[in-house]
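On clarity, I found the account of how folds are encoded harder to follow than it need be. Since the whole study asks how a given chain folds, the encoding of that fold should be made plain. For illustration, here is how one protein appears when written out as sequence plus structure tokens:
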Amino acid sequence: MTMHRRDFMKAAAASAGALVTAVGAVRTFVPQAIAGEPLGAMGGKFDRVPVVNGNFQAYPPFEKWSSWRELSGDDWKRGGIGRADIKVHDHILVPTICSNCEAVCGLTAWVDKETLTVRKYMGNPLHTGSKGRNCAKGVAVTSQTYDPDRIPFPLKRAPGSKRGEGKWVRTTWDEALGTIGKKMRETLQKGDALSKKSIMHHVGRPNESGFAKRVWSSLGQDAHNSHTNICSAAGRFGSLAWTNDDRSSPDWEESRLFLLVSSHAADAGHYFQQAAGQIAAARKRGAKLVVLDPRLSNSAGIADLWIPCWPGSESAIQLAISGQLIRDKTYARAFI
């Protein structure tokens, strides 16, 4: 078949016209909507993110926490309200806390009212410690809740298998608790020193308000162990000796000078996660940061002054500073 150039141009023009007509016909079926207006087949209205002083707010206003409607991130990436197959999800924001470290920052669980599943976790702007901020551990709470590899039931060693072979079968909670309780009772009834040391209760994050330790004390056991023993015990002891609180909460945000001694409060997690944001806010208003640390840590890297002391000399430097303040009478005598 032979087609001349003029015939080709006519055919192309006709095809383009048909395509435009088809696109126009399709577009008549695609709803056009803006925030707060009905979306027809897309399922109701969606709420507008509030803007304060020209900035988008990270969280809905509190009066909307009982019903906040929005599209999922996936739907926005697929074209948002320009598609007819998207859905508006109606959420209720439920305040909770994160237990992925002992900072116990505030969270809000965004619960889908239709499915009663948590679609995402975000911070809680009303939490006086974290003030809406969260680190990556807080975001990871979602995967802990719905991770496909999570094991939500007890397992026991498969019959006939040996220790270390990694062969397990599912069992009931009654059987698991009964087996553990029986072995513990038999061990405690022996009463000798070795038997007492044969039981250990270890928790990754001791956020149970001390109740578990009382249970072991009632059994005459000192079997409680936690992550604190091998991580933050030394740091907590210093705070406990000075303030009678193992995790004190200084008024970071209103301070004018920060002296961090081998501490990473300006960047680290754990219970300093909340301090980092408040230190940043204070520095934005002019506060100064001094870091006393043998190594160039992240906090030292952003400090106004980094003092790279010799390891172990921190106490001598602090005594020298204290002595100078006393000799010059430049400390707040009335406060002290």
Q: What stands out?
A: Residues 18-38 have pLDDT under 50 and may be disordered. The two ends are 101 Å apart (CA to CA). The longest strand covers residues 88-97.
